[in-house]
Design brief:
Layout (H helix, E strand, L loop, with lengths): L2 E7 L3 H9 L5 E4 L8 H4 L4 E2 L8 H11 L6 H20 L14 E2 L9 E2 L6 H13 L4 E3 L2 E9 L2 E9 L4 E11 L20 H8 L4 E2 L4 E10 L2 E5 L2 H5 L3 E4 L18 H13 L4 E4 L6 H4 L1 H9 L8 E11 L2 E3 L11 E3 L4 E2 L12 H17 L27 H11 L6 H17 L12 H22 L18 H8 L11
Parallel strand pairs: 1-2, 1-9, 2-6, 9-17, 16-18
Antiparallel strand pairs: 3-5, 4-5, 7-8, 8-9, 10-16, 11-12, 11-15, 13-14, 14-15
The chain binds succinic acid.
């Protein structure tokens, strides 16, 4: 039975950051697909960090809180923004190269709701790929990396997590024991029909932690990225917010800009505000485009996006990219303290799978790669400060499982359809109730809390996880009878109240708690 000091589940930036800092221990990193399949690899815009002398951590702190509708944990936000510049500089010392000018100074981009230029990037718009590949190269020789193996169930004995069961696509089940287990398996974008996330991001880590008794928080706060490339009604890829940071403007098919009438920060308002504005525009029957005609260096500044547009037949010479909002980021997740510790001993969570409270009700742009780096290192430091106990051995070591009743499962497409239609950008009690009942009808058929990994394929386990996540999001959204950040209830208060609607688009510190 394989035994490690630390098991890390996932292979994105948070997982690799933790693995790097724990590399002198016995670390096993388990990922259900190739290590390259993560949201971190897809991240375009960059990493937010206060580097410029005219900026200060207090600005970054305040911007994060305003974007997050003051639902954030301020202590953790302070840690995040104060540690950010050190992290960037340390990785540069290890050889990571970010985009710089000819004098070697960082080229700093701007994104939504940032008061200053502070977005560090690499490869123009391939920041996530560049940093994730760099971390992987720095880590791979000291860490055992297991690909194409899905973590299915945590092993918890006497309240202590001591490892995980995995399953391979060929049906092989394995048991891994460890003194510490870190979930870094990302969020749950694939539960929605339109998403910027990798298709493997089905909320497995969060669902698995929930089944094991971990506290889950803030699941109603879903960030829809305003500008996904939209082709024939399908969202096919991300158009980074950095494009608007360079000056691109959202327009409708008549060429009319609309964000400047709705928010003082116009096209660079917080993401939830811009996504709602586009959503309302589309509800009026309008199409929405990003006008990039004023950007002379588009192809060199945004090579990944240019390639993607070309692949989908968009001629950038026309200066318009068709866009629509799509699920991008989960602000909630497995509740942790500042060290990434959950309520289950020896179980930790980091990155998008975790809810440290840094993002509040709506994440500030380019704070997620930063969170992965900073909290990956932090959890590693904390684990290294703890005694490395032998894992509490499972009493029954035989890997025999009681059989689960068979049950009919929906398809992934059906789940995505329900989430997109009933738990999307705007929500009502009636729609959320429908979604909750729909998910519960499947949960009643067989127990998803104690199902047997032996009886289901990895595909079916993904679907069970998606049902659990869909249910968690819709019940949390039903329970929160207010609108805030990535959770917008048109029934709180009266949706015809024009003043309230205005406040949903423009918010100041004192107007944050509208609709309570
Ligand atoms: C983007 O480039 O717009 C996405 C970056 C992020 O999610 O913060």
């Amino acid at each position: 039975m394989p035994q490690s000091d630390v098991i890390i589940i996932g292979s994105g930036i948070a997982a690799l950051s933790a693995a790097y800092h724990l590399r002198h221990k016995q670390v096993t990193l388990i990922t259900k697909s190739s290590w390259k399949k993560s949201n971190s690899m897809l991240a375009q815009g960059g990493i937010a960090a206060v580097i410029h002398k005219n900026d200060s951590w207090k600005n970054h702190f305040e911007d994060t809180l305003v974007a997050g509708c003051y639902h954030n944990n301020p202590t953790n936000v302070e840690y995040l923004v104060q540690e950010g510049p050190n992290e960037i500089l340390e990785w540069c010392q290890r050889g990571m190269r970010f985009d710089c000018d000819q004098n070697g100074q960082f080229l700093l981009g701007k994104e939504g709701a940032h008061s200053h230029h502070r977005i560090i990037h690499a490869g123009g718009d391939a920041t996530g790929r560049a940093i994730t590949e760099f971390l992987y190269q720095a880590t791979k020789s000291s860490v055992r990396i297991i690909e194409n193996e899905m973590a299915t169930e945590l092993i918890v004995e006497q309240g202590v997590c001591c490892g995980v069961f995995t399953k391979r696509i060929d049906g092989t089940i394995k048991r891994y024991l460890a003194s510490n287990t870190i979930i870094a398996s990302g969020g749950c974008g694939a539960v929605y029909g339109h998403t910027s996330n990798a298709d493997v991001i089905t909320g497995d880590g969060i669902a698995m932690a929930y089944r094991a008794g971990a506290e889950i928080a803030d699941m109603e706060f879903i960030q829809f990225h305003p500008t996904m490339l939209q082709i024939n009604g399908q969202c096919v890829g991300l158009i980074s917010e950095a494009v608007r940071g360079e000056g691109a403007v959202l327009i409708n098919q008549h060429g009319e800009a609309f964000m400047d009438k709705l928010h003082p920060q116009a096209d660079l308002a917080p993401r939830d505000v811009v996504s709602r504005a586009i959503f309302f525009e589309m509800k009026k029957g309008n199409e929405v485009f990003l006008d990039i005609s004023m950007l002379s260096n588009f192809a060199t500044r945004f090579p990944t996006i240019s390639r993607m547009c070309k692949q989908h037949g968009i001629d950038l010479k026309h200066g318009r990219i068709p866009v629509a909002p799509g699920m991008h980021f989960l602000m909630g997740g497995i509740r942790t303290d500042e060290n990434g510790e959950t309520n289950i001993r020896k179980l930790f969570a980091i990155g998008e799978a975790a809810c440290t409270g840094v993002h509040g009700a709506n994440r500030l742009a380019s704070n997620s790669l930063l969170e992965g780096l900073v909290f990956g290192k932090r959890v590693a430091g904390h684990i290294l400060s703890l005694p490395f106990d032998q894992p509490v051995m499972a009493v029954d070591d035989s890997m025999e499982f009681a059989s689960t009743d068979s049950c009919e499962l929906p398809t992934k497409k059906q789940i995505q359809g329900i989430m997109t239609r009933y738990v999307g950008i705007q929500r009502t009690e009636a729609e959320l109730t429908y979604a909750v009942n729909w998910f519960e009808s499947y949960q009643k058929q067989c127990s998803f809390w104690e199902f047997n990994v032996k009886d289901f394929t990895t595909q079916q386990i993904e679907i069970i996880n998606m049902i659990t996540i869909g249910w968690l999001i819709s019940t949390s959204a039903l329970n929160r009878t207010e609108s805030r950040g990535g959770h917008f209830r048109i029934d709180f208060p009266d949706m015809n109240d024009k003043e309230w609607q205005k406040k949903q688009l423009i918010r100041t510190k004192n107007e944050m708690y509208v609709g309570v």
